[in-house]
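Handoff note, outgoing to incoming analyst
You'll be picking up this chain. Sequence as last confirmed:
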Amino acid sequence: MSRNVPRLLRAVALTWVFCLVFAGAVYAQALEPLTIVLQNGQKQSFQVEVARTEADRAQGLMFRRSMPADQGMLFDFGRVEPVSMWMQNTYLPLDMLFVRPDGSIARIAANTEPLSTRTIPSGEPVLAVLELNAGTAARLGIKAGDRIEHPLFKR
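Most recent structure output, in case you need it:
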């Protein structure tokens, strides 16, 4: 029996490492198209995962080590209210776009700090938050007042 203990411990350790390495891939969801319309009329297209459930919103982009430049995650809160986000267990620096029910961007928290437990408030009641790779908003000229097109938002 004592010979089996090291083998069992090794199996548990390998399983743990596997879970940590592949956690981001396990939580990946189907991608949906989303467009940001800048105030000058220019459009920027993305493919986003949509976090619609409490469990999906709690998981968010935690444990992921990379995300393609044209992808993001849209958090649907299901009702309009002030929200706060944080970066616990999130390795990617992100731009957080806080979005009103009409799709207009209320506020952008740029270059959020990875792994931080500091809360990042919406500043006003919002319906959703769009997370993109850090620097995306500045690089593409996305600003508060620009509009997001996705079925979640009413026009």
